Amino acid sequence: MRIKTIKWLLLGIATIIGTLLLAVVVSLAATDCGNRNLVSPVIEHKIDSLLHELTLEEKIALLHANAKFSSAGVARLGIPELKYTDGPYGIREEMKRHSWQPARITTDSATYFPTGTALAATWNPELAYLYGAALGSEARARRKDVLLGPAINLIRMPLNGRNFEFLSEDPYLNARLSVAYINGVQCQDVAACVKHFVLNNQERHRSEINVTLDERALRELYLPPFKAAVIEGHVYTVMTAYNKFQNAWCSENIFLLNEILKKEWGFQGFVVSDWAGTHSTYEAALAGLDVEMGTEREYDSNYFARPLLAAVETGRIDPAIIDDKARRVLRVMFACKTTDTDKRSYGARNTPGHSKTVYDVAAESIVLLKNTGGLLPLRAEHVQKIAVIGDNAVRKHASGGFGAGVKAKYEITPLAALKQKLGDIVHIEFTQGYRKQSAIHFRQGIQRETNDNPDIFLINKAAEVAASVDVALVFVGLNHDYDTEALDRENLILPYEQDRLVKTVAAANPKTVVIIIAGSPVDVNEINRSAPAVIWGWLNGSEAGKAITDVLFGDINPSGKMPFTLPVDLEHSPAHALDTYPGQHMCVEYKEGILVGYRWYETKKIEPAYCFGYGLSYTSFHYLNCETDKQLYHIGDTIQVKIQLQNTGDLTGAETVQLYVHKPESSVLRPAKELKAFQKIMLQPGETNAVTLWLSASDLAFWDVTTNNWKLEPGEYKLMLGSSSMDIRFSKDIIIE
Ligand code: BGC
Hints:
The chain has 737 residues and is α/β, with parallel strands linked by helices. The protein has four domains: 1-34; 37-95 and 108-343, Alpha-Beta Barrel (TIM Barrel); 367-562, 3-Layer(aba) Sandwich (Rossmann fold), CATH 3.40.50.1700; 621-736, Immunoglobulin-like (Sandwich), CATH 2.60.40. The structure holds beta-D-glucopyranose.
């Protein structure tokens, strides 16, 4: 009897401890792992003594590559090499030390995470934190110190080959997710590296192009994600962009690096060049670049190697500048505990936990674009035969796309997942539908060769199969010949005449669901015309197939929202409408200014195919009782906006409530809508819950080019609360005094 009592007691204690631990884990997951300021009196003191001991040569060795993905340490003082890795959505396979060739080892497989736009489509910073934490843990397991991500350039232009790596066309959504991602990574004792600072918004001519734009657009759109990464995310490192800004390379741009990043924002970590993106010794060193990586020359002759030493020795560069750079590198090393391995996170890779995070992100990212007649979700008991059509049903997307590619331990394709889920109950017939008819070549530079001749035999076969089944699932979209670094696309049309396939299949079977697998905007006109149900499935990581299958069959209720606009026509999008892409004479002027993405479509009243923030659910939501805490606000105030959200359907589901603002009367052009807050909330059928959003009055300011400062104009502002940028359910007017 007594033994039993003790057993129960122990069990009780264990449960309490377990619950407490869970609470700690959950609260960490939701927020942060504590203070990660790079600067503290103790650390600075330690660095002072080290700088005293280091020779000039040793300091300079810290400032440039000694291999493709590392910079030197100082063995005699126990300072290890600093090891870098790509990339934003998975730890890149191991490369040979001095070349871009894979090392071909067997211990470098990694979890493949959903790419940037997929993460953004979750609108869920808590998931972004878990994503970063899992990525950081994999980086540690591979003994890396600096993770070259997140890639947070704004999606300015739909054809950018790298959009899939980036997050959004909106700086606020971008910032919320990247700050959480950075927190996750850095809590694993790995430095995140936000890239590419800044204005790397097209791949075409990226290594030569000079970007010009007015400072207002720079301040209001392109800088805020980086500013949030530094000020809120305490990011340890920043990578410069390849391009120029106002005629100066970003890697030697005094205004960007010294004035804004280091002085204005107080960045205390180090600035690293993009690989082979350094162009000088003196200018770069003085402008604020700290570390040079990737230059295709003997390391010793890198700009920041012997030439830097010579510049100091001849008195051209003050040794204090070298000390500052070395200090920044050492700060990051200490913050990541590189010299204190006993205390450092050990990391783990390919764990079930990481797979779960990948699945959760993928599941929450999937966007239901269209669902006529409630065709979805499908019910396994109501379908006997389904057709699975299209190359993207069987294609794996982990590798490719250049630096960001991942040697995935595994990747579940849609067809594999469908078979796994339905194999015994439903007859599945796969047919190819279209073939990938493209390849990337490295002949004279990087080129894509493609063939868009439709394979009529495959299309007819697909239509025949579709006609014989209950439901046809057509997996179309892009692959890494298109969603890729170094090359933009030529247009938005789906390659290999996939539109023709969609049209033919949908004509053969009215129950056709189209699933778009792509990381960047594509032309969806034909898909919209032909298919009753459309889903955006992204490049969605190791668990991609499973997540899409679970959405199709209703185990997951879709809750993703588009992080970018899908235009009806490429020419409607701002950079193309104003003929500012790819620029002339290696110069591109961002003539659209602050009207990027939905800011443009809303202000110019151009109807897109699907707007920013759009996404349906299998349930429905009702917005009730919108109110603000006051009507009159002053600078420094917080504005509180509250609504009741009700799930009016039969299924549990999540909605993202979005808050946009507009100033009707202003001394300058104000976009018709600007996202200032959002909140994702899960509700049971019939459940009603309050959603509270906050913004500060200063979030309503604009960048005044006449005073070179933020200006909060007094007067009336419109707050708009809705389910997407176009679906506004409540408007409230407030006054700023
Ligand atoms: C890319 C970076 C990447 C680096 C190292 C560059 O080409 O622009 O994003 O981190 O290569 O692979």
